[in-house]
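G., the chain you wanted modeled:
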Amino acid sequence: MMNRKVILTLLLIFLIVGIAAVIVVYLTVGRQVNLAGFRGSGSEASLQVPTGFQVEIFASGLTGPRFIYFGPDGVLYVADRGNDRIVALPDADGNGRADQVQLFADQLDSPHSLVYHEGAWYVGVPAGVVRLADTDGDGVADQRTTLIDSYTPPGQHSTRTVEFLPDGRMVLAAGSTCNVCEEADPRRAAVTIYDSPVGQNTATGERVLATGLRNAVGLAVQPQTGELWASNNGRDLMGDDTPPETIYIVRDGAHYGWPTCHNGNIIDPDMGQPDACAGVEPPVAEMQAHMAPLGITFYTGDAFPAVYQGDLFIALHGSWNRREAVGYKVMRLPLDGRTPTGPAEDFVTGWLREDGTVDGRPVGLAVGPDGALYVSDDKGGFIYRIFYTGER
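Predicted structure as C-alpha cells:
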C-alpha cells in the first residue's frame, strides 16, 4: 500500500494540474463565455412583439420541446426531446390553447426534428431517421421503421434535421463532431440526400448534397422556388463577433466553407490557407455571431399583414461563446421572393432579461392553419402562439 506521504504528494500534483488547467481554460476560452443560458430555471416569459401582435401560451409542461410541425389533421406535433417522445397538441375548440398533450410515440432517442410526408412522420434522432405511422387512425403510432441508424457517434452536435424536397427526396442535416476539424464521415457538417423512403424499410440512394455547413440545424423549403434553405451555427472561439451566424440556400454540390472558411470570406485562423474561401458559397443573410439560429420557417399564412408574407422567421437559441449574451429571440428576415430586402430584425424578444437571466430558449417554428406563428421553448417547456389582432 502507498504510504501517506506518497498519497499526499499525488493529491498535490493533481491539485496543481487542475489549477493549471482552469487557468489555461480561462485564458483561452473563459474571456469569451457567458452563462446566461444556464441562469434561470425556465418560466413563462414576458415577451415583446411588434404593434398589433399578441403572444399567448399554447401549451406547457413539456420537457425540452424541439421542432414542431402541423400534421394534415391541423394538429401541432412536437418532438418532446426530454421525454423521448412525439406528442400531439390538439386545439379542437379553436381557443388558441392546446386541449391536452396526447402521446403519439414514445421510447425514441432524443427526437429533435419531425416532418409529415405521404402518410407518415419522419423523425430525426441522433443515429438518423425513424418513420412513424398511425395505420389504424387512433392517434397513436403503431408502425415504426428505422430508416437510418448510421450517424454515430453523435460528437459535438447530435441533432438531425429531416426535411423533404418538392420532388419527394429526403434530406438530412447533421452538424460537425467538433468546433473545427477535419471530419472522417463526409455526411457530418453537411446535408445528405436520399431517394424517397416511402414504403421502404431503409433509406436508399444516399449522397452528400452540400458540404461545409458546420451545424445546419434549421431546414425549410422556400414555397415559391422549392429551394432548400438552412440556418447555420458558426464556429466558436474566434471572438465575440466573428464569424456571423448565417442563412444559406443549399445548392446541390456546393461547398459552404467550414472548417477552413466562414461566411464565404473569413479564413479560419486554425485551418485556413490563403485560398480557403475560393469557390465557397456566400450566405443569403448574416446575423450577430453566437446567437445560435435553429428553426426557420417561411410565413405562408394569411393572418399577418401583407408586409410579412413570404418572410423568413428564425429562432435564435442563444449561445455561450460571447462575453455579452445574445440571441434568445425570434427574428424576421424580410424577403422579396428569395431576395432579402433588409437585414434580419427582431420579431419576438423577452426570453433574455436585462439582468442576464434567461426564461426560455426558442427552438422550433411553425405556421398554423390559423395563420399564427408557433414557437417552441426547450428551456421553459412551452409552446408560444404569436397572432395578429391589429388593423391590416
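The CA atoms of residues 142 and 353 lie 43 Å apart.

Shout if anything looks off.
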